[in-house]
Amino acid sequence: MAREKEETKRTEVIDMIKKKKKVKINIEEPIAPVIKIETVDFASKGKVGAKVQIVEFADYQCPHCQHAAQTLKPVIEKYKDQIHFVYVDFPINPSGISRLVARGAQCAGQQNKFWEFHYMAFDKQQTLGTASSEEFAKALKLDEAKFKECYSSKWSEELVEKGRKEGERIGVSGTPSIFINGRRYSGAHEGAEFISAIEKELKASS
User: Which of 8, 132, 156, 200 has the highest count of CB atoms within 10 angstroms of its CB?
Assistant: First the structure.
């Protein structure tokens, strides 16, 4: 989150200098290295092996993650099988609630309701609490007994922890951290920006 604020401020300052001083910056943006990300077991949408893979590391209590989720949703639906979107939990909020909600989402996934739970959690971000997972499970009419068994299991805890460790392994330190075809995405979290980045990758691979 801190990294995102620093990057936003940096961009604002550069834009202001360009406008006021009419300065032209000729230094090209450095090309981010391609990173191999382990995505097995994590929730995904689209087609595995598609030309464009988007991997997002996020926290359910992160406001910027909420915005990214809302912005990416129609973009993912637009491209469907042209992209493979993978969501990885990276709970960093000190309250611990993000981790509990992440475990709930994984258990909802066992009943084929991960994405419904996922978007519900972001929509209700302002009121997330320790009982939110159970509330969302009821709202989605999940099998209560199966959900509770999963939610209290080590499986859900270990899967969320696996995501956090994978993020740390590749250098993720803030949320959301988004990678497109293995390269860290540094653009704005807006639909047009995501579409531009996806189109660039599709064109490069055609």
Answer: 156
